[in-house]
User: Fold this.
Amino acid sequence: MRAFLRLWLAVSFLLAAIATAANSGGADHSSTVQLMEARYGTARTLQVSFLERYMQNGKFVRAEAGEAYFLRPGKMRWDYQSPEKNIFVVDGTYTWFYSPADRTATRVPTKLSDDWRTPLAFLTSHIKLSKLCAKIEQQNEGAAELGDVLFRCELRGAPDDKLKADAQGKESVLFEVSAEGDLRRLMVHQEAGIDMEFSFTGWKWNPVLDKSLFQFTPPRGVAIVDGLLPESTGVRQ
Assistant:
């Protein structure tokens, strides 16, 4: 599960950038990042459908899909619906991963480290883009949809389990934004030739979400495992 947390670390870099992007300036993309800031920066709740695609050495491995929910500050829930039902919840105290098929719920305290590069970083409004991205550059090609803009965020720092350095020797993530300012895609390159692509559709701003969504109570008979999350849970590596 450590690899799974690294994915949300990458997502944290991106969504923190969205929430504070207007601070980055830059003549080439200032209007786009300001539009993102206007759409995401003031939302207390968010909801979106997502698709995750996993590739290894350029070959497609698998895809997973579901619905994600966010509540500021510091809470989120990812409901995986296919091909297997799994739940990933950050409730403000613990990070939970529940696999009904395995009858196992794994939890880790959300404050194992005071490092600013935690999976919760993107939900803390005081995080500044300058702490996350040393540079944001607009890419001339690579956008999946006509009218979208693709950006490269060069990460200022890196966690212990590092993202893979790009051709310029810098650790970075790519993110695609629609003409309306919606986050469309996130691309993460990791070690061992693993690439992750997150696609998002149907963003909803400030939907009414029951707070129980961000609470997790293990069903009766489910084993609770404390500590580091395993390297693989079900099909997830």
About this structure: DSSP finds three helices and twelve strands in the chain. Confidence is low (pLDDT under 50) at residues 20-28, 113-126, 158-162, 229-237.
